[in-house]
Amino acid sequence: MDPTLQQQHFLSLPRPDALEGPQGGAPDTSTLAAHDFDVDTRTGFMPPQQPLLRLPLEWNVWENVLDAAMRGRLQLGGKEGLTEEERRASEEWREGVRNMPLLPTTPLKSSELLLRRAHLVLAWLLHFYIHTLPPSHPPHIPAPLTLPLLRVSRALRLPPVITYSDDVLYNWRFTSTTPLADGYGNPTLPTVGNIDAKETFTGTRDEAEFYLTSARMELRGTDALEVMRGIMDEVFVGDAIALSRVTSYLCELASIIHDLGEMLMRVKEVCSPQVFYDEIRPWFRGEDSSAGRWVFEGLESDETLERPRELSGASAGQSALVHALDVFLGVDKYSHGPSGSSSSTASSSTSATAEQPRSSFLKRMQEYMPRHHRAFLNHLANSPRPLREYVLANSSSATSDAPSEESKDSGAELLQAYNAAVQALKVFRDKHMIIVALYIVGPARRAAAAKAATSAFVPPAAPSATPTLSDATPTASTPSGGTSTHGTETHGKETQNVETRGEARSEAEEEGKEVLKGTGGTDLVRFLKSVRDQTRGALITLPEA
C-alpha cells in the first residue's frame, strides 16, 4: 500500500499563497480555508515565505516609530544606572507615540500577511512604550496605539501583546546572501541556515540568536509533523504492516525530539544568560508580570472594544509544536488519568489540584497562538483514533491469552517505541529545566543575593565599587548583524558551574520553593516540574501476562 497521504488530506494541501503571495486588491484567504491549519508540509508552523518586512506607506508612521526605538537603543526604565540622557531619549520617543495620528485598520483586513505585520509592529511599540517607563509610573497606553492594536488583535483573535509568533514565527528574514528564488524560479524556503531575526529590542546578537534558536527548532519540528501525519495514516489502516510502520515512525519521532533538545541546549553557545536575564527578558513581560495594571486609553471612543485581561508576555509555551507533540502522544490527556495505564509512581507525583492550574495555563497559552494553529491542535486532540489508545490496544493484545509469537513481538516493539518517544519528550523537558536554571533561576538568585548584600552594606562617604550583576557572568554582546565574540569560551566558566545536568536541575527544583514568575505569568519552576512529571507519567507499563 502506498504510505503517502491522499491528495486532499489536510496536511497535503498546498497553501494558496505559497508561490504567488496575496492577490492585489483581493482578500488573502491563504489561512482562511476550512482545510488549512496554516501548517506547511515543508516548514511546519513557520510560514514558507518570508514574512512581510514592512507595512505599506499608509502605515509608515508605525514603522518609522518602531525604527526610531530600535535605532535609538531605548533602555529599560528600570535599568540600574539609567542616565538622564537615556531617560530623556525614552520620554521623547514616547511623546512621539502619543502624537501619532490615529491610522485606519480596516484596509489591513484584506490580507492576513498585513494583519500579522501590523500586530507585530504595534505589539512591539506597546512593549517599548511600557518597559521604557520608570517603574514608579503607572503605564497608560495612548489612544493612537491602543485603538489600532486592539482592532488588529481582534481581527487576528490574538491578545494585544507580544506573542511567540511576533518574536519568532513572523520575525525573520532571509540572510543577505540568500537568493529569494532558485535557478528555476522556485521561491526559497526558510532553513536553519538561511534566516536571521528582523526585530530586536536590544540590538544584540544574543537576542537575535535567542529568537533564531526557537525558529530553527520549529523548522526541525517539521519532520515531527511529517512523522505524525504518517502515523495517523497507518493507524487508520490498522493492519499488521501498518503496526510495523507505526513502530518505525515512533522511533523516528523519538530521534527528532532528541534533536530538538540538543538544539535547545545549543542556545548557550550564542546567547549569554546574564545578557538575557538583565537586558532581553524584561522586554517580554506582560501585564501579569508587571507591578501595575496597564491602562488602555481611548476605549470610550469605540464601544466595540473591551479592555484586555490577563495579558501574559511572550513564552515558549505559546509554540504549537510542543503542544502538538503533547496532544499527539497523549501526554496532555492520559498521564494522570484514572485508568491506571500510566506509570503509577510518576503519576502520583503530581496531585489533581496541581494538574488543574497546569491544564488551564496551557489552554490559556493556546489563546496566544495564531488561531489556525489553535484549530490544528483542536483537530489533533479530537482524532477518532488516538495514538495512545492504539498503542494500548495492540500492546494489550500481545499480552492476552495465547497470542502468536509474531503478535507478541510486534506489540512489545510498538510499546517500546511509544515509550521511547514519551521518554524523549521527558528528556527534552529536563533540558528545558536546565536552560531555565541557567538563564533565569541562577541570575535571579544572584540578583537577590546582590540586592541583599547591597542593602546590608553601609557605604563610607566615598562610594565604593560594588560588583554588578554583569560582573557575575562574562558577556560579549554585539550589535545585531555584527560578530559575536561570546561562545563556548565566553561562557566556559559559567557553563562549568551550571551545565552539569544534575546540578542545574537541582538548582531549578530548589528554586521551586520560592515563587519565580515566568513571562507567561506562571510560578515558573513549579509549573515546569509538573509538566515534566506529567510527561514521565505518560509512560505505559503493562501488567505481566
Automatic annotation (TrEMBL):
SUPFAM superfamilies from the UniProt entry: Indolic compounds 2,3-dioxygenase-like
Database matches in InterPro entries: Indolamine_dOase (IPR000898), Trp/Indoleamine_2_3_dOase-like (IPR037217)
Gene3D superfamilies, sorted: 1.20.58.480
Annotated stretches, region: Disordered: 1-32, 339-358, 456-519
Biased composition (Low complexity): 341-354, 456-487
One GO MF term attached to the UniProt entry: indoleamine 2,3-dioxygenase activity
Pfam families: IDO
Protein name (database record): Indoleamine 2,3-dioxygenase
